[in-house]
Model the fold of this input.
Amino acid sequence: MVLLMLLLVVFGGAVLCSQSAINGRLGAEVGVLESAWLTFVLGTMISFLLAFYLEPHAALNLFTVPRWQVTGAFFGVVYMLVIVFAMPRIGTAAATVAVISGQLLMSVLIDHFGWLDNAVIPLDPSRLCAIALLAIALALIYKSNVARETEGAEAVAG
Amino acid sequence: MVVLAGMGLSVEAGLLGPLGEATGQLWATLGIFAIGALLLTFGLIFGRPRLGLLFSKPRWMLSGGVLGPVYVGALTVATPHIGVGLTMVGILFGQVGASLAIDHWGLLGSAKRQVDRYRVAALLAILAALWLIH
Done:
């Protein structure tokens, strides 16, 4: 089960990357807000159709669960705005690394304390080692992005 | 600010898991997209929208919207089973892996690039981290 779920999220990450590749081009040509809007409107339409026809009745629905549980989208939209604002100022390399660090830090905290009604998964030595490995991975991603940015600058200059 | 924004993404995943358990996973996905769409529509009304341009583009460029629910759905289904941390690391692995594949074969209209050694090494480090957490 765990392995299956892991495959699912890896697949989700791959899909997210293709999506940002597609939306990145669209955003550059049409505008960031417009491309994000299209993503969310299409997402709403598709998930509504799926949920309406396929989802069995649950005890609670979106209107009866505690309101704070339905605030996830605000974080997503704030994230998008911050990225659009920050990317040109600090560069893709630094932005990517900052986002991932924030993500990992917060997810470890949520797991450790079981915030937001999640199961408690304590921070143990093997998790700490994993975090060290991820820090290495981040440093490598940063290097690769910096290499890319200079390559891009040369292409523009040339 | 960017670090905080990244933390927000994990909070989003942390909220989605329990919400999906309560209402059903597809409804939770809908909750994210419907509220996001409302907020962005507000943004567009006060901006200077050029929506017409969207539909003059080749259709495949609009397909990003179809992929969004796959990602949100995966978050919703997986977090209750494996936790937010492992979910995020898995997503990261998928992203870096896909970025390598996109570069290598020049998929989705991006330029073809040489396989980037830094990224391959990063992918291996993430894989090791996944195994450790798991």
